Amino acid sequence: MSASAPAAPITQDVLTIPRKQDASALPNLVGMTRDQLTEALVNVGIKEKQVKMRHGQIWQWLYVKGVRSFDEMTNLSKDIRARLAENFQIARPEIVTKQVSSDGTRKYLLRIQGGHEVEAVYIPETDRGTLCISSQVGCTLTCSFCHTGTQKLVRNLTVAEIVGQILVARDDLDEWDLAPGDKRLVSNIVLMGMGEPLYNTDNVRDAMKIAMDDSGIALSRRRITLSTSGIVPEIYRVGEEIGCMLAISFHATTDDVRDKLVPINRKHKIDELLQACRDYPRLSNAERITFEYVMLKDVNDSDEDARRLVKLIEGIPAKINLIPFNPWPGAPYERSSNNRIHKFADIVNAAGYSSPIRKPRGEDIMAACGQLKSATERARKSRAQMERGIEGL
Length: 393
Ligand code: SAH
Ligand code: SF4
Hints:
This protein is an alpha/beta fold. The protein is 34% helix and 15% strand. The chain has two domains: 23-87, DNA polymerase, domain 1 (Orthogonal Bundle); 94-381, TIM Barrel (Alpha-Beta Barrel), CATH 3.20.20. The protein is built from twelve helices and eleven strands. Strand 10, helix 10 (303-312) and strand 11 form a beta-alpha-beta unit. Helix 2 (34-43) crosses helix 3, helix 6 (201-212) packs parallel to helix 7 (232-242) and helix 10 (303-312) packs parallel to helix 11. It binds S-adenosyl-L-homocysteine and iron/sulfur cluster. Residues 143, 145-147, 192, 196, 227-229, 249, 292, 294, 323, 325-326, 369-370 line the site of S-adenosyl-L-homocysteine.
């Protein structure tokens, strides 16, 4: 071997380069709460005096600029960037498919860790853009009119996966680095996708805190609406710990009918649910509870139902969102006629409640309420099996 042979330096390099870690196994910076991020930075040796500043910078890169790599964090030294890259990842759900409806609605099928899939839907309107996000893969509840309810729960989404849906939509809409006063494309969030958010309250709370954080995504709590089938004790937590707007999947005016449509009603009856609504903090004309009411032909759509509904919610600042039933293959219900829906709406209106009829959006791509169901989970659990499942609640 000649004296100039590079053998020694190469051996040296090989010995000193740490074995490349599988980046996907590293902790994700997306979805860390502020406290967790501080701890993470301290743990990788960022000097105590610098932690606060670095924390602010990183938060901005993640949630204002929407960067996807550490290289783009140009106000951090190369050394810090390298240290971050060795120890963390910046990961979002991966878009498997994106469908754009003729009405502009975009439905994203997203792959998350473990190969599971969830859906998020972006609905543009003239005065706002609403992103409907999922909180679970599937749902353990088995509301009989809901397509998601036919899919068994696989797991709760993590904070990163919930926030990640917002990031993915903003990537796709190219909505980063907004100047103050810029019109927002994603101006509202509704937790009305797959899953029951209040069976995953902790993660939903932490994710919404990130979405509401003034130095990041900065959505006002009044632009976030959480929809629940009625997990009463958790509703109190939403009021205290998140403070966002509340929507209740009400759908029936007697316990008998609601037991069948929304089986969690067997555990938390209408009276108890409405008490939690009355106790919800900050209710006023400007902050009303939305009662969602799916219109099912000959099941819950009579004049009597409408009258009972307004009586039940008397005194609660509320708006009634009438949702024409969105059919799905094998669904055991039909949509009420337009006439019936309008007649119902008139009665509710006459009692002083706003009762908009929700226009189905994205129907041609199965993006409408209750139609979300990931392709991998189409195998249907039998109704009987699910009915048994609810007993354990
Ligand atoms: N699990 C939560 C949030 C997701 S469902 C909840 O139940 O509130 C979002 C809304 O869509 C709920 O009001 C739900 O009742 C409604 N929905 C479900 N299936 C539907 C369907 N097939 N047609 C119309 N609305 C439906
Ligand atoms: Fe679950 Fe909501 Fe569907 Fe009921 S309506 S099965 S709670 S997703």
